[in-house]
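Task card 7
Instruction: Convert sequence to structure tokens.
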Amino acid sequence: MNKPHLTFEWSEKHERLEIHASEAGLHKLADMLRSLVDSKSDGHTHLMSPSWGGDALSESKQGSDNRLINHVVIYRWPEGEPRSQSQRPQ
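Output:
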């Protein structure tokens, strides 16, 4: 399998988050999300680029005017409404 490519990039021009991924990168993201879904409790997962100490995100941005996001945190909330910022899973 090829090395996964996965970037989260902010496009200021279009005011949107862009996710760029190879097939291997999408599989890696899906596995991380599946693991979070299967977790027995509220939780979270970190995706970081190598310069931030991780290996889940790539460092080669795809949009020339985009800003690369080096650290993404995905929180798993219990069923129902998300809680306030102070109650988020640690």
